[in-house]
Amino acid sequence: MSPDKRIVGTGYNGFPRGCGDDDFPWEREGEPNDTKYPFVCHAELNAILNSTRALNGCTLYVGLFPCNECAKAIIQSGISKIVYRDDKYADTDAVRASKRMLESAGVELVQLRFNKTLTISL
Question: I want to staple 9 with a disulfide (CB 3.0 to 4.6 A). Which of 39, 51, 111, 116 is the partner?
Fold first, then answer.
């Protein structure tokens, strides 16, 4: 979202353009090239690549805290704030590296908090 509150891109987890869902694995376990992990583009990267304008000063809204690979693209694109819902992978090397880079680059990190009546607070 731009500083003037306009949506400037959307993203999704999926294979790169031209790589069909039926041609690549969606498995989560197995040998590396028999799983989805080396092939899938994360929603954060797709949102950056599908943006309609420069992203300097924009806010990125995500469900899960971004991995280290997405953090690099976020920083390089000029996004200044990330609002995320869940930090369930906080104990992984990828998220620890991501937080280190994002904090070093001055990207603001905000976790959504929900109360029992589903009121959202930042």
Answer: 51
